[in-house]
Design brief:
29% of the residues lie in helices and 29% in strands. The protein contains 6 helices and 9 strands; from the N terminus they run ααββαβαβαββαβββ. It has a 7-stranded mixed β-sheet with strand order 5-4-3-6-7-8-9. A two-stranded antiparallel ribbon has the order 1-2. Helix 6 links the parallel strand 6 and strand 7. The protein is globular. The termini are far apart. Bound molecules: S-adenosyl-L-homocysteine. The site of S-adenosyl-L-homocysteine has 24 residues, from strand 2, helix 4 and strand 4.
Length: 207
């Protein structure tokens, strides 16, 4: 099977399994070349529904997890989004097709550099990659319509709640062990209304 055929089959699987639910998100998955965000040696696995190593001990999330988190964010064309954990840059690339601008923060300088290269290679210019500790948010760009965290936190960092707009949505894996719970929070009257969206496994958020 060619890469294009594998991509088509993966997207059909994500739709029939209920992970991909809305037209714009499906279209973003069709557009974005996941192979641009993984090491060259792994290209053949670009459209397998698994996380893959991307260096520095980190992983690119499995496509179904990117689909779940992207759908939960309910991205809008006018949204300004914060991502914590750029990693490969793939999740940011998907969101960049769906929102106005995305600011992604990555702790590992090497990964931030590679993420930036993948985004540039794909021709996406509405993503800003910043090196730093994303649990502090990005005060100079706040507030955000949506926040997505792609590493497991023991608790939802306060600065992220503060930097979320009223009515805004945050998707974040929360837990202290190997597994986390995927939490969807909606900010109402300054507080987060939380919903548990199921178990997940992410690399830990570090400081
Ligand atoms: N969204 C990524 C998934 C990356 S895995 C993708 O699409 O590929 C999670 C990433 O979070 C790792 O790259 C890790 O280095 C980063 N990370 C961990 N703690 C962090 C922190 N406090 N601030 C920013 N990034 C962090």
């Amino acid at each position: 099977m060619s890469l294009a055929e594998k991509k088509k089959a993966l997207i059909e699987h994500l739709i029939s399994s209920g992970y991909l639910r809305t037209k714009p998100v499906i279209e973003a998955f069709r557009q974005v070349p996941r192979e641009n965000f993984i090491p060259t040696a792994q290209k053949d696995y670009a459209y397998v529904d698994e996380p893959l190593p991307i260096g520095s001990g980190q992983t690119i999330s499995a496509p179904h997890m990117v689909a779940i988190m992207t759908e939960l964010l309910e991205p809008k064309k006018t949204d300004r989004v914060l991502e914590v954990g750029a990693g490969s840059g793939y999740q940011a690339a998907i969101l960049s097709r769906l929102v106005k601008r995305i600011h992604t923060v990555e702790l590992e300088p090497d990964l931030a550099k590679k993420a930036g290269e993948g985004l540039k290679k794909s021709g996406y210019d509405n993503v800003d990659v910043t090196v730093g500790d994303g649990s502090k948010g990005l005060p100079k760009e706040a507030p955000f319509d949506k926040i997505i965290v792609t590493c497991g936190a023991t608790d939802i960092p306060k600065p992220l709640i503060e930097q979320l707009k009223e009515g805004g949505r945050i998707v974040i894996p929360v837990g202290s062990g190997m597994y986390q719970e995927l939490i969807l929070g909606v900010k109402r009257k300054g507080k987060l209304e939380k919903e548990n969206k199921g178990a997940c496994v992410f690399v830990p958020l570090r400081h």
